[in-house]
UniProtKB/TrEMBL annotation:
Keywords: DNA-binding, Transcription, Transcription regulation. PROSITE patterns: HTH_GNTR. The keyword Magnesium does not apply. It comes from Allohahella marinimesophila. Residues 7-74 form the HTH gntR-type domain. It comes from the Bacteria. This is GntR family transcriptional regulator. The lineage of its organism: Bacteria, Pseudomonadati, Pseudomonadota, Gammaproteobacteria, Oceanospirillales.
Length: 237
């Protein structure tokens, strides 16, 4: 693999390593070998180090003196803390979008929602693709909300959220369909400029995701990860 855009090289490397962490190809507490990554991507170790600093800011790796970068561990406490913060940020984004959207700005959101609905209706669901595509709605809302501090914070959180969401739902397609129903409800609440409904939907979604992931992590520690998601029933509406 060879990258062309020198000005965004560290970001491209971070995306490459980050995707391996999100999908579990790089496991928690596993060391990220700079030399190996540099060889795989035909880039310098300095560029890899820059990428790892980005990933540390995105809560995917921890960097230690004399040990280098290690994939961040996943604990139930991490899941609870992450989703509590993420829910607050997501609700703020949706409320700002509801307040500020102008004519024709909602059409791309509605089109992307229809795209997600088609993906989630497939018999074979590509978990990695749907997790990534789900953030497309957030990306469309960010310029409407027009808050650079919120944008930077959410962009840094999305990688850790993607990792946890993929881990907990990759074997349960019903979770993806539930997520798409959630997205649909939020888009409708944004269209109606209804902050109360936005707050309720985001709170319910975050609580469900948090319960799902905490159950998964606790069960994984006990050696029964296969049935972990079954302890958090998927809401039907």
């Amino acid at each position: 693999m060879r990258f062309q855009a020198a000005e965004s090289l560290a970001e491209q490397i971070a995306q490459y390593i980050g995707q391996q962490i999100i999908t579990g190809a790089l496991a928690p507490k596993q060391r990220v070998q700079e030399l190996k990554v540099a060889g795989e991507l035909n880039v310098s170790r300095g560029s890899v180090r820059e990428a790892l600093l980005l990933l540390e800011r995105r809560h995917l790796v921890n960097i230690f003196a004399r040990r280098g970068a290690v994939v961040a561990d996943l604990t139930a406490s991490d899941a609870e803390s992450l989703y509590d913060m993420y829910a607050s940020l997501l609700a703020t984004l949706a409320r700002l979008t509801a307040q500020r959207w102008q004519p024709d700005e909602l059409a791309p959101l509605e089109a992307h929602l229809r795209h997600l609905e088609r993906l989630s209706s497939q018999v074979e669901i590509n978990a990695e693709q749907l997790v990534e595509e789900g953030f497309g709605l957030m990306d469309l809302c960010l310029p409407i909300a027009n808050n650079p501090f919120l944008t930077e914070t959410l962009q840094n959180f999305r990688f850790a959220v993607s990792r946890m969401y993929f881990l907990a739902t990759k074997d349960n397609p019903q979770e993806f369909r539930y997520s798409v129903r959630f997205f649909s409800g939020v888009v409708e609440a944004v269209r109606l400029r209804d902050p109360d409904t936005i707050n309720r939907l985001v709170s319910e979604f975050a609580q469900h995701q948090k319960q799902l992931l905490v159950s998964f992590l606790i069960a994984s520690e006990g050696g029964s990860s296969r049935s972990a998601w079954q302890s958090a029933p998927v809401p039907q509406a």
